[in-house]
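Worked problem 6 (solution included).
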Amino acid sequence: MAEQRPILVPLDGSKLAENALPDAAWLARITGAPIRFLHVLDTDVPENERGKAAETFRAYTKDVAAEHDLGETRCDVIAGSAADEILKESESASMIVIATRGRGGFRAMIVGSVADKVIRGARVPVLAEPGVEQPTVPVPGKAIVVGLDGSPEAEQGLVMARKLATASNVPIVLVRAFSLPPPAGIEFSYYPADLGATLEAAAKEYLQATAQPGEKYVLMQGDAATAVLEAADQHDAGLIVLTSTGKGLAKRIALGSTTDRVIHSTSRTVLVIPQV
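Solution. The predicted structure is:
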């Protein structure tokens, strides 16, 4: 049997970055995957000081692993560009769990820009913890909200969401938004009177066909990000699941307006599934 790929958890020694640990513990418990901690030293740390820094950080991760009941964990300390090294090491991981904010401690690594680059460049799922004081994970009473747009690509996120929901015994809520397309010019600014009703009916039909028994769905008029955020609040979501376009870090492109807006607007954990 092939060895199970680990869950990669980058840490910088800050308390806010540690908010990713409850998420990592939850995933490890329901998937059986081991935890691998990663700390990236700045390249300006002298060579003769890196050994001591690595030893200090490994001792730190043993303490936090015990605190969160993570069992046996692995810890690696390397030097380089934080985002680049995290993405490189994630090639052998099952997913990444990362706090989107974190400062202090071991020469602060996990700041917003690094987390954004990791989420955009990763070719494995990324669980983004917003760094709030009381992180939430899917537990009984905390639904998993899944954003859909009617495409097969977006449904990649639904596949994983269903696996996580089943393992955690939590409900699924599917979210779909619809809106009139913006007019391309004055000559195209007229819409049939029933266009809105037609779009709504098509979106509802899609949700009804996609939802499995016991799954709820939410249909809203407006932009997708607002629909996902409102549905997450209404259902007190423990997790939001979205699918992004996986274009790679080198292109430095946005995730897409919906995924990007949700990640930067919510205090809830977001799981981003890349299209690869």
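Discussion: Confidence is low (pLDDT under 50) at residues 102-111, 246-255.
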